[in-house]
Amino acid sequence: MEATVVSQTDGLARVLRTFTISLMIATLGTYVGSFLPQSLFLPLSLIEIGMIIAAIAMRKKKAVSYTFLFTFTLISGMTLYPTIYYYASAIGAQTVAMVFGLTTVMFVGISAYALISKRNFSFLGSFLAVALFTMLAIMVFGIFFPLSSGSSRALGGIGVIVFSGYILYDVNRMKIHGVKDKDIPVLALNLYLDFVNLFLSLLRLLNRK
Predict the structure, then answer these.
(1) What percent helix, strand, coil does the chain show, rounded to 5?
(2) What is the pTM of this model?
(3) From the first residue on, what is the mean pLDDT of each consecutive set of 10 residues in the chain (209 residues)?
(4) What is the C-alpha separation between 194 and 170, in angstroms, rounded?
(5) CA-CA distance, 135 to 126, in Å (whole number)?
(6) How far does Cα 81 stand from its chain's mean position?
(7) DSSP for 10-73?
(8) Contact 15, 188 (CB under 8 A)
(9) Which of 36, 54, 70, 114 could form a Cys-Cys staple with 171, CB 3.0–4.6 A?
(10) Residue 5 bridge partners (DSSP)
(11) What is the DSSP letter of 119?
């Protein structure tokens, strides 16, 4: 039995509503993270990575559930706390809040353009995937050979371009192909990852340390 395809407007509204709830849960997770002992962040990060791998595998079967999505975003919020704390110390809490606001404005603006534009941005998929894997390779390299401040900011700039592209790509794809009921959690997960990674890329770009 095929999943129901909802109307374009209703489908997009439901995905964006689920995405917004995910961000709220992640914010709660970040607050909870401020009370967690340091020793818990590594296992939580490993769980988060495992869930991302699982989400990629389940995506092919369209099996991501709301429970999985909200559990993931809660854990993601917890593991974000040390990063947010680091940038708040490095560039100031007010700047971090400003960057979050900028991320929101960029997300809304790019999403609106993806919906209004008559172009099909599906061609971006392969380019974005290559760029993303290249970024991941550089970040892994940076674990063993720390990047200079300039290289780190350059990586942040590339991340801003890549994840802005992913927002454009993901929202445009929903407009073109429509939204099925069962796909709403995985589509909201895509947007959540786009938003968070854009936010982190902007922080990396602005960090002078």
Answers:
(1) 85, 0, 15
(2) 0.89
(3) 59 92 96 93 84 67 80 93 93 95 97 94 92 86 82 92 96 90 90 94 88
(4) 9
(5) 14
(6) 15
(7) HHHHHHHHHHHHHHHHHHHHHHHHTTS-GGGHHHHHHHHHHHHHHHHHHHTTT---HHHHHHHH
(8) yes
(9) 114
(10) 180
(11) S
